[in-house]
Amino acid sequence: MSRGAFFESVSTYFDRAASFSKIEKGLLKQVKTCNSIYRMRFPVRGDDGQVRVVEAFRAEHSYHRLPTKGGIRFSRMVNLNETVALAALMTYKCALVGVPFGGAKGGVRISPASESEGFRERVIRRYTAELIRKNFIGPDIDVPAPDYGTGEREMGLIVDTYKNICMNEQNAYACVTGKPLTMQGIPGRTQATGQGVYFGLKAALEKKELTAQLDLTPGLSGKRVILQGLGKVGFHAVKHLQKDGGAVIVGVSEQEGGIYSSDGIDVEALLRQRQETGSILNFPGAENRDRGAVMEESCDILIPAALENQITAENAPRIQAKIVGEAANGPVDRGGDEILRKRGILVIPDLYLNAGGVTVSYFEWLKNRSGVSFDRMISRHEEMVNREMVNAMETLTGQKLAADRREELILGPDELRLVVSALEETMNRSFGKIYEFWRERDLPDLRTAAFLKAIEKVANSYKDHGIFP
Ligand code: NAD
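^ thats the input. predicted complex w/ nicotinamide-adenine-dinucleotide below
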């Protein structure tokens, strides 16, 4: 797969959607183009004492809303085109689910699994310093988050570096999201993208017209699911599908190989095994398979949650799923997309399905800026009113509520509950809107509908600013 394939796929998806719009050509060009790119090379001392030159990027795709927002990826595959394509997807993703940010993305070309913690720390601190130097990071400028190969630890190191250099910045903690809770992160962020994938699939399977078309029964219960990539996004997606949705996870594929069991795989036990042994293979009750072959097994829902270009013209004819849920960014390339569409397989596109992460990142950013957690904003007055209502209800019915339920009704929801319910609402509402748009405008597929809706929103925001009257 060529390095530009992902970039070209995003470009093709944009152009196809744009062909259904009446937006003037120049404005479309502005919506498509990447506004700024910072390509850097910096020295970092390796564990052997030798200097190594690290290549890294940050792309800020669109300034129609500020700050720009997007994850930082650690991977030896990172390159400029990939970073720009991911930044573009962020712009459309934010517009689609109503997060008021422009899109951005960062990439550092190292292989995280084969580097020491110390080396990764030196790299992320130096990368942050480079971003500060060129004004490519800040609470009102550009706000990174985790992506492939990075997590809470790296985000914590970013904020630590930032606040030590930018000592006068009042909102320093809002310079990055996905931070550990002890560093002003928000509960629910770690699982947000995966949980959002679950809410998105749930919303899709509630549409009876859609399930009838796919020859599926409505609802998630009993649906057979195959996952590629048991990472942050993939694990939480299948965990919620299994525990909350009643779906059966029949196959999992990872770098070391795949496993399959028609009886279902306990994904929490599988993750524990991988953490302990470094492999998903030889899982009790499951058969080992080739990692690519697992994705081609029969199932209702296939969830690619690893990297881009995993379903291409080469393997798309063999995919047996009825739904492909794009948990990763760009897992289906344009050749694969064409074949899946012709075969009547529904692709739920990345720019909608994995938007849960940036949605909860937005809540974290708001929390950091206001300096108070959401549950503390519920006023004392509201608490007193709730208490009186609960007391009156108990007197009227003559029944006492269980102590924990009583407490919950009086004090209101905790922060995690608020975050999860807002995430669910965002994913539900957004799916409803894309689905209606798809039908109303008679568009070829859900991806085109999602892209077109996002493109129109971004284009309109330029008009709202009066820049292009
Ligand atoms: P991660 O590093 O936590 O997990 C990725 C997993 O995929 C790893 O376990 C890795 O071993 C596995 N993998 C890599 N190549 C594979 C292959 N060929 N076959 C099977 N497994 C393979 O990364 P993540 O944060 O879960 O991100 C995964 C995808 O989701 C990326 O495309 C990312 O851009 C996208 N995404 C992530 C977030 C987020 O909040 N982390 C948000 C939106 C989108």
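Residues 71, 146-149, 193, 228-234, 253-255, 291, 305-307, 327-329, 354, 357 surround nicotinamide-adenine-dinucleotide (CB under 6 Å).
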